[in-house]
Amino acid sequence: MTKRIMSLLMIAVILLCCGSCSGIKLTKFVDVTEETAVPPKIVFLGDSIAAGFGLEGYTASDLYNCRSYANIIGEMYDKELPEDCTGVMVNKAVSGATSSELLESIKSGELDEALADSDAVVVSIGGNDLLSVLFGIIKDTGYNYESGKIEFSETDILSAALDLLSLDSDIDSALGGFRNNLKEIAAGLSDKTNGRIFIQTLYNPLEYFKKIKVLVNFSDDKIDTFNKIVEECAYDGEKQLYTTVDVAGAFDGRCTDLTNINSFDIHPNASGHEVIAGKVDSAVRKYTYSYTKTVEVTDEDAVRRLVLICAAAGIAVIAVITVIIVLLVRKNRKASP
Can you give the pTM of this predicted structure? Predict the structure, then answer.
């Protein structure tokens, strides 16, 4: 009889524990932050250099089918990121965009969606503020093209030199406007994203025109000023707003090979985009990035609750058994002659 009672009690305790623990899950899903060497989401902004103008496969309506440096980097980072982190590259560059137009796009909110969760933002801007003016001087001199060569006359050289002198103040004014716009662009981007910001310097494709020394020297001086502005505006006091990408240094003395200037096009060619990709990549890798993933882990609180329930049930069983044993012993004593 005693053994039967004990068995029934044990079954009751087991059922009690099962019923009490049936709603307890011993695992839960939590968000975990992982570090990476490259940004999971990278956004490119700016002008035709970032857009890939002049490359095979480029169209203004689709920037993702050419070997621009943006596409090179996007493809490279997507392969490098862990399997549980999908790489995202967004290119919002617009061919012909000036610093004023980029600033307006930032202020208007049209870039908010792209920037909101970005880990890195790379900007090429200002070329149209300056190069369009400088290059216009060459175009207006009316050179003849035969067999892909440009033949200069004394008249052309003199005309270009006079144009440069007359436009000096205009270009300085454009540089002043660029400085003001760049400061606002940097501040605006800082408000729109928590990601790292990178801004490229500008190369001088006019170094190709060696026969017009006055033009080369003049353009070197103005583009040097432009690049100093990019470097200076990277800081607001001691606070760093962005990192400078030294594209100018990589192209110095190599513009004939890295641009389409021999076809009267100032844009980088395929080799040029490979070089820019390398410079951007080097700058980006100076920092670490992170992404969040959801994983299933042991719920320590649930385990503790289960242990407490089982302990309480065990104590209850011991107490009940003890009482029953005591009662049975007393009963047996009374029944003895």
Answer: 0.76
